[in-house]
Amino acid sequence: MERTFLMVKPDGVQRGLIGRIMSRFEDKGFKLVAGKFVQVTVEQAKRHYAEHDGKPFFDDLVSFITSGPVFAMVWEGEDIITLSRMLIGKTNVKEALPGTIRGDFAAITPHNLIHGSDSPESAARELRNFFEEDELVAYDKTIAVWT
Ligand code: RTP
Ligand code: MG
Predict the structure, then answer these.
(1) pTM of full prediction above 0.80
(2) Which atom of ligand 1 is closest in space to residue 118's alpha carbon?
(3) Where would you tag: which of 20, 95, 97, 134 has the fewest CB atoms within 10 A of its CB?
(4) Separation between Cα atoms, residue 31 and residue 75, nearest integer Å
(5) Residue 57 CB–ligand 1 contact under 6 Å
(6) Whether 115 is catalytic
(7) Is residue 98 predicted with pLDDT exceeding 70?
């Protein structure tokens, strides 16, 4: 079963949207595997956004993601990487459709509320940057998608 790393960014925490954002993934039927409230360090932020190192917005991105606590999570489900990015919506909030998290709640592009891994390789790398193996909880979720 595929896993992804999701993170409510500091703007989502400040706006009190952790619960409503998590509900989107619960409603879809995905399985929560790990979650914690953390202050991201600058080193951890640079590792997380390593693919953007050298781009003009990199320093602002690191400042933003370390500006306050985040809620980091691991979720599991079939095709969850693709499907969770559909639930999240486009990076540019002007292109994020209503019904998506960004489309419904975000109004300023860099403050787009939530991060979601974009590939299995990114998911594995990002997950390791935030969680130890023993923080991932194994359990049966008997009701998969009927909500
Ligand atoms: P994220 O990684 O944060 O989940 O967002 P994403 O996949 O939708 O977008 P990505 O291309 O990975 O960009 C990461 C974050 O950098 C900011 N960004 N600014 N000024 C720009 O052109 C620009 N491009 C990206 C956004 O805050 C984006 O979420
Ligand atoms: Mg990204």
Answers:
(1) yes
(2) 7
(3) 134
(4) 6
(5) yes
(6) yes
(7) yes
